[in-house]
Design brief:
By secondary structure, the chain is an all-alpha fold. It is 74% helix and 1% strand. It is built from 15 helices and two strands. α6 packs parallel to α13 and α8 packs antiparallel against α13.
Length: 300
């Protein structure tokens, strides 16, 4: 016989479940779906011809080009740093390890505007290195180098933060097996370590790229808002909006929205693939030869 309390609990469970689902869906619809629809509705409000004209103007093209160039520089550098830092933290013990982990999280704790101001104080005309840069005719603030530096600062934890817990959870057993079978450091990295973290690595790169293209605060401080020269897509959107050119502003903003949606789709695909079980097969075809072509790694 089912106790009365259990019966009442079983009746309440569907109510609680559907109430929570309803609240979650309402928030998603109100704060995510509705703003996205508003962006595209406003962008196409004056027709497709006006939309194409807005995103093909010289200043818009210059902003798109600068955004792509900035991401193309910042993401590979963050990728290199993320792999090196996460590998060192997860696989080795060294003095200052906890300090390095804390510093990696620093851009998450510091406001992007503050990070931009840091570069102004360092490289600006009145900054610590300003006189030396002016003497050698090197311009960083209000120029492309400053935008790249600010973007690197705000995006450099993304790859490392994806890889560190992943590498720590995997331990060092597989690498040690590879070394035992005769693989050298390069072979171990490219055939064991890197395949094991490839989905997390791609995930981190995607998030890093999305943030690099959409960064506003830090870039706004160091850019100078020079039309056609130092305006990225978010800055160009702000200028158009402040000039009451709403249709063009939303048209350019829709490019970033499309990028965000594509990023989320790819992220979901990667997360689904990363949950698939992997099979590690390490074999030595010729026990008499080690460290050559006789070390094989397979991953499903």
């Amino acid at each position: 016989m089912v106790p009365p309390m259990s019966r009442s609990r079983s009746k309440l469970e569907p109510v609680i479940r559907w109430t929570l689902i309803g609240i979650a869906l309402a928030f998603v619809a109100l704060f995510l779906i509705l703003p996205l629809l508003t962006v595209f509705t406003q962008a196409l409000g004056k027709g497709l011809e006006a939309y194409v004209r807005a995103i093909s103007e010289p200043e818009a093209l210059a902003a798109i080009r600068l955004t792509l160039v900035t991401a193309a520089i910042a993401v590979p550098l963050n990728l290199l740093f993320g792999i090196a830092a996460s590998w060192a933290i997860a696989k080795f013990e060294f003095p200052g390890k906890n300090i390095l982990i804390t510093l990696i999280d620093l851009p998450f704790a510091v406001s992007p505007v503050i990070s931009g101001l840091i570069y102004v104080l360092l490289f600006g005309a009145q900054g610590a290195l300003g006189p030396w840069l002016a003497e050698h005719d090197i311009k960083i603030i209000f120029a492309v180098p400053g935008i790249v530096l600010a973007t690197i600062f705000v995006t450099f934890p993304f790859v490392a933060r994806e890889l560190i817990p992943l590498m720590q959870s995997q331990g060092k057993d597989e690498e040690e097996v590879a070394y035992t079978l005769g693989a050298n450091g390069r072979q171990t990295f490219f055939r064991v370590t890197l395949p094991n973290v490839k989905w997390g690595l791609l995930h981190g790169v995607l998030l890093c790229n999305a943030r690099a293209m959409g960064e506003f605060g830090a870039v706004s401080v160091v850019s100078g808002h020079i039309r056609g020269q130092t305006n990225t897509i978010p800055l160009h959107v702000e200028i158009l909006y402040n000039e009451y050119n709403f249709a063009a502003s939303f048209a350019v903003a829709s490019l970033l929205t499309i990028l965000a949606v594509v990023t989320l789709v790819i992220k979901s695909v990667l997360e689904r693939k990363s949950r698939q079980p992997s099979i590690l097969a390490v074999r030595q075809t010729d026990p008499g030869k080690v460290g050559g072509e006789h070390y094989e790694y397979r991953s499903a």
